[in-house]
TrEMBL record, chain A:
GO terms for biological process: tRNA threonylcarbamoyladenosine metabolic process. GO terms for cellular component: EKC/KEOPS complex. Belongs to the CTAG/PCC1 family. InterPro entries: CTAG/Pcc1. Signal peptide: none annotated. PANTHER family: EKC/KEOPS COMPLEX SUBUNIT PCC1 FAMILY MEMBER (PTHR31283), EKC_KEOPS COMPLEX SUBUNIT LAGE3 (PTHR31283:SF5). This is Transcription factor Pcc1. The lineage of its organism: Eukaryota, Sar, Stramenopiles, Ochrophyta, Bacillariophyta.
From TrEMBL, chain B:
GO terms for cellular component: cytoplasm; EKC/KEOPS complex; nucleus. Signal peptide: none annotated. It is found in: Cytoplasm; Nucleus. A divalent metal cation binds at H149, H153, Y170, D347. This is N(6)-L-threonylcarbamoyladenine synthase. The lineage of its organism: Eukaryota, Sar, Stramenopiles, Ochrophyta, Bacillariophyta. Pfam families: TsaD (PF00814).
Length: 88, 395
């Protein structure tokens, strides 16, 4: 099965630890079926950590939904971190 | 005789069925506090629960909740419901902590574990809450406990009413089951073979244009109480230990579309045409029919299990007419009905904390990779490690 539709999202985190925690949280939920594939990684850039998500899908519509959902759930992670991170 | 849930700390002593807490680091502490996050349907709630060792009590310290109410004539859909929960869950956690530990600069320091609903329910809403729970777990470095939503209702009911081993009628928008405990599982004795009773009521409310605020079921209950409401015969569908609602829904929807008279018409005397029925007639008749079906299958389970106590849990359990009808049957059998009010019948965070704290006290933690949520999670799939494992006895 080929996944011709792809998107890459880079989110800048203040540090590596928070970016890693975000990945741990978000990678638990698998996309249903294999029509959408998600891959997480951290790209180190000077003093910040960039959480990278690469999404690939078999159809444009599925990619749009996956990207939209990703933003929805990552916002919950970010809001939780902003409110409750003991370091801040 | 009906026993109602009490406020304040609930002693676990009436729960003779529960095993004594095992010796462990967790259980050697004087106080255990857990957070519970619930969001499987249109309600999102966060509860803080505290266990005190010295008097063996569980107390709800806070239990704030927000409900997503769809516009009149519509139901709540997964996407909008998920957005609602995503918008409110973090603030609810903050509110719950503040109410539980007022004037405390670091209330989260008290929390020993985070309990959340694994399922069953709607995927997006469940996931929205689970994501928050997981993040908190990593930030505060406390374990996670995944909870079955139905078991949450049951354990909340047991603690709040002191009923150790009742036959449970679990009735909500998403579930309709008659449950009895046996050998570390909540066994399903009877259930709906199609839609849940709450779903039937909610969809009917849409057809007759009742508001969803505060809930369609509540508005049906009020409409049914109106003076002059007449009984209209509806199909009655009990199949052995099970019930079926979708045929009754179709029937009552058809009646509403073809024979409903508006209040204005009836005031003008058009109700003389005996073919016409009012909203109140339909609401009253639907409740009488559906609730009688539930009473029948509950009684059947009581007879089978030799049980005298019934506990009603789930949002539809708030309905006073259902409680009254069940109470009549239970009294005739010389038993007790245990019921609660809307704070605990309707989905809430504290019930997840209640089932979760039991699991936590028995060492049942959930690893991060196992914290995925699921729309389907049968009540009997959850191992009830905190209750006695007893063999069935025939009398």
């Amino acid at each position: 099965m080929s996944h011709p539709y792809a998107a890459r999202i880079d989110l800048t985190f203040p540090d590596n630890e928070l970016a890693e925690k975000a990945i741990q949280v978000l990678q638990v939920d698998k996309e249903p079926g294999d029509r959408v594939v998600k891959a997480f990684s951290i790209v180190q850039e000077e003093s910040v950590a960039v959480l990278r998500v690469e999404l690939k899908a078999t159809e444009a519509k599925m990619l749009r939904v996956a990207v939209s959902s990703f933003y929805d759930f990552v916002q919950v992670v970010l809001k939780t971190m902003q409110e409750f991170d003991p370091a801040s | 005789m009906t026993s109602r849930a009490t406020d304040g700390p609930c002693s676990a002593k009436p729960l003779v069925d529960n095993l004594p807490l095992p010796e462990s680091t967790i259980n050697s502490k004087e106080t255990t506090v857990v957070l519970g996050i619930e969001g499987s349907a249109n309600k999102v709630g966060v509860g803080v629960l505290r266990y005190q060792k010295n008097n063996h009590t569980y107390e709800i310290l806070s239990n704030p909740r927000k409900t997503f109410i769809a516009p009149t004539g519509q139901g709540f859909l997964p996407r909008e419901t998920a957005w609602h929960h995503q918008a409110h869950v973090v603030a609810l956690v903050r509110t719950a902590l503040q109410e539980a530990f007022p004037n405390d600069k670091q209330p989260e320091a008290h929390v020993d574990a985070i309990c959340f609903t694994k399922g069953p329910g709607m995927g997006g809403p469940l996931q929205s809450c689970a994501v928050c729970a997981r993040t908190l777990s990593l930030l505060w470095k406390v374990p996670l406990v995944a909870v079955n939503h139905c078991v949450g209702h049951i354990e909340m009911g047991r603690l709040a009413t002191g009923a150790s081993n009742p036959v449970v009628l679990y009735v909500s928008g998403g579930n309709t089951q008659v449950i009895a405990y046996q050998d570390q599982r909540y066994r399903i004795f009877g259930e709906t073979i199609d839609i849940a009773i709450g779903n039937c009521l909610d969809r009917f409310a849409r057809v007759i244009g009742l508001s969803n605020d505060p809930s369609p079921g509540y508005n049906i209950e009020q409409e049914a109480k109106k003076e002059g409401a007449q009984y209209v015969e509806l199909p009655y569908v009990v199949k052995g230990m099970d019930v079926s609602f979708s045929g009754i829904l179709t029937h009552v929807e058809t009646l509403a579309k073809t024979r409903l008279v508006q209040e204005e018409d009836s005031k003008n005397g058009e109700k003389d045409n005996s073919n016409k029925i009012t909203k109140a007639d339909l609401c009253y008749s639907l409740q009488e029919t559906l609730f009688a079906m539930l009473v029948e299958i509950t009684e059947r389970a009581m007879a089978h299990c030799g049980q005298n106590q019934v506990l009603i849990v789930g949002g539809v359990g708030c309905n006073k007419r259902l409680q009254d009808m069940m109470s009549i049957m239970v009294s005739e059998r010389g038993g007790t009905l245990c019921a609660m009010d809307h704070r605990y019948c309707i989905d809430n965070g504290a019930m997840i904390a209640q089932a979760g704290v039991f699991a936590f006290q028995f060492g049942e933690l959930t690893k991060m990779e196992d914290t995925w949520v699921t729309q389907r999670y049968r009540t009997d799939q959850s191992k009830i490690v905190w209750r006695r494992s007893a063999q069935w006895k025939h009398t």
